[in-house]
Design goal:
513 residues, alpha/beta, Rossmann fold, Immunoglobulin-like, 9-stranded mixed β-sheet, 4-stranded antiparallel β-sheet, 13 helices
Amino acid sequence: MKKIQHLILLSFLLLSTYCIQGQNLKTKLENLFPEATITSINNLSGYSESFQLILKQPLDHQHPEKGTFDHYIYLSHLDYNKPMVIETHGYDTRNIKSEVSQLLNTNQVAVEYRFYGQSRPNPIPWEYLTNDQASADYHAIAVKLKELYKGIWISTGISKGGETALIYKSKYPNDVSISVPYVAPIINTLEDTRTNDRINTNGTASCRAKIVEFQRAILQNRAAIMTQFRNYATYYGITYNEVSMDEALEYSVLEFPFSFWQWGHSCSAIPSKTASATTLFNYLNQVAGVDFYGDYQYEKYLPSFYQHMAELGYYGFDFTPVKDLLTVVTSTSNNRFAPKNTPAYNPNYIKEVRNYLETKGEKIMYIHGGLDPWGACLVNPNTSLDYKIMTLTGGSHGTRIGSFPSSDQTMMITTLNRWLNEATLGVTNPALEHSEILIYSPEKDGLYTLKTNKPNQSYTVKVFNALGQLVLEKNKSEQATTSIDLRDKQSGMYLFKIKFTANGTEIVKKVIR
């Protein structure tokens, strides 16, 4: 009888433990974010628990008394000890698994940009829509979640989201160890000429001539095209009160070359100038999207143009091919689409971000498409930094790691894993260190002498390969120098991790065998 009671009690305890464990993460999240609304959601592939969190995020992180807004984020849980990818979406957010999360098998938190999508207050308090406030959002989220997720943190984002990841890295460099921004421009001015320079050199001369011919054909057949346009707008219920239909048509024509190359369209698909009005309009709409200038999209992207015109910069239209055919649009600037209260452009903001990336931006993998006009807005990092710029020949704005040839993919993933190992071991770039406590120099191929300026202290030396595997360990007592013999090891990158016994100080150095 007692045995049966014990079995029943054990079964109850096991069931209780299972239930508690199932609720454990949610409980922890509720403790971390006591004011948040936290809801279980369907798991993305490979995850065991997933949640939508609606945070009460301060409008102004320097002045919390100014109020809050509802901020939507999505957490996908794999393992507390695995790395965490924070995906900084540039606009609204859907809960999808990022490529970086898939490749590196990580946890993930997807963060909607403040004042976009479901995180958009009504009305928008525009003065709080700044990149600094957005970066502070990510920082606040990271600080809390790092109480649970102790692994390496990685940031990623696409397009404006990639630009956001870079800005966040520049403002809070210790929040993430690695960044993987996709097709992310760092723009020079309100009308960065580098985009038009790329457009005017992309492809062949005959293809570029065909684009110009198409642009002109649209405006030379304006009356017939406008009939097609009005029929389209009526059928789909699109209104044009903020931007007139005549204006929308001209902006679509001006936008056409940028969108054509951005999304990798084929020159062979461009209709001839003698094509029907239906064919001409349909192709213009396919590439440039006339509904972008309709009232719904105009309202949706007001926050984006506010940010571009205030801090981020943008590109300007090239009037050259069609200037004689324009009747409504008179300015090459996109400021037409920003709110009336947008502050004057601050050119210094993005310059500071660029300066950080080019002088201190470590472990960043920039991914671009070779034809994408945004890909012309690159940074030029110091060669002493550990970074990768990967540009896919013929690639578009949809370029991802999986778009590259297999050999490049292998190299990129190997680099990311090396960065993960280095971040785990605390490796820093020697070029960025202020002082050298320990110096190593190869005497022969694979034979190293370690010299420390603390000759009276004991220390241990551990050597790891690029996979993070321990290949050698030595303990030294009060010796200023010691030899490390890697002559029987394969060529490649090795990490020397030295720990002083007295005070626990650790130093990690990287060598190439």
